[in-house]
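Readers of this paper often ask what the protein records in our data store actually look like. Such a record has a labelled line for the sequence and another for the backbone structure tokens. Nothing more is needed to write down the fold, since each code stands for a local backbone conformation. The remainder of this section carries one protein's record, kept here as part of the documentation.
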Amino acid sequence: MDEEYDVIVLGTGLTECMLSGLLSVEGKKVLHMDRNDYYGGDSASLDLTQLYKKFRTDQVVPKELGREKDYAIDLIPKFIIASGEMTNILVHTDVTRYLEFKQIAGSFVYRDGKISKVPSTEMEAVKSPLMGLFEKRRAKKFFEFLQNWRDNDPATHQGVNLDKDSMKSVYEKFGLEPGTQDFIGHAMALYLDDDYINKPARPTYDRIILYTSSMARYGKSPYIYPLYGLGELPQAFARLSAIYGGTYMLDKSIDEIVLDSDGKFVGVRSGEETVKAKQVIGDPSYFGAGKESEGGKVRVMEERKVVRAICFLKHPIPQTNDSDSVQIIIPQNQVGRKNDIYIAMVSSTHNVCAKDIYVAIVSTIVETDKPELEIRPGLELLGPIYEKFVSVSTLYTPTADGKADNIFITKSYDATSHFETVTEDVHDVWKRVTGSDLVLKKRDLEVEQ
């Protein structure tokens, strides 16, 4: 191969496919390679045969689960926040023409041993068992304060400085109980732990406004999800890249990242062939992740590991009004942990499994040497589990920004239940690769209610 590319992208995870699609649209000459024979990398959606091959090499797929092609099981469960940055990127690139989205029916939170719906309307808020009558009044004042806030109008600030005052002091100003703080910080601002509470309130304000505006956008819940599973997302961006001249090679071994005498990237060797390019972008697994090599290109993230259990159920999750899809958050304080536990459930209405099967994925950040025990509070909410596949993933992040050697590495997919951290990584890598900010057009997205 004598051809030289602007960028070689390694791995077809969602982050990498988004970047290759966006770079192709910008006119960059992109070659995209993956050692797997399917799209999606760590963020793929697998059919039944692929799923059993990955987790149960010695077991035959049970006949009663139905046709394997009816399944698209996400390895990493995440939902799309309706008004979030992921939606902006989907709409900006017009990849929505390859995708259809459906709403997630409800967002729930675990409190005092029960599952309660996160209110999506004022009527639901009035009836919600999450707060007593007086607390509801205090919470109403708190939310009105957030909704009415205008940066350039001090009359709306009520003496609060979002950039200096901690979130704790804002909660205290409105007299909110610890249980309500828990619910707001974890079920709405979607923080994984309580570190945010002593930091300035601005990021939490932004997150709550994002949640409430997403909730208002389509009703029921703030989340949407692509039909046929999350694996459709990287494929849609791969199509986009191909339309703009990007080249794809799946099932290709990556044998060496070739560097020059100064340690700068010059190409990728696969077997006897070496392809040259000015820059390389790739997921951590292509740069020594898992080998724990000192002085390497990647290091283990502070959060270290995530445990996930993919569960097949033959019924909706109890206490969720028979919803066909839900997110349930178990705030860490409710179960004596440092990190929240997430449950994401989808079903045949999303074209990801056979009729009358429900797929629930329970996940959290690992805190002990017994990861499966840590997700037990989530598993216990599911009712009888027909089949369960458990995995523990180590999380990696690059050690350098890549500007010195032209090697730009993405981050592992974290434990959050949505794509906002993925889009942050896309923006970050984009800026490092191109030297400029990624600017997006905003339009509306059509979603099946």
Summary: The first helix runs from residue 14 to 25. The first strand starts at residue 4 and ends at 10. The chain has three domains: 4-57+229-300+397-434, 80-106+301-394, 119-218.
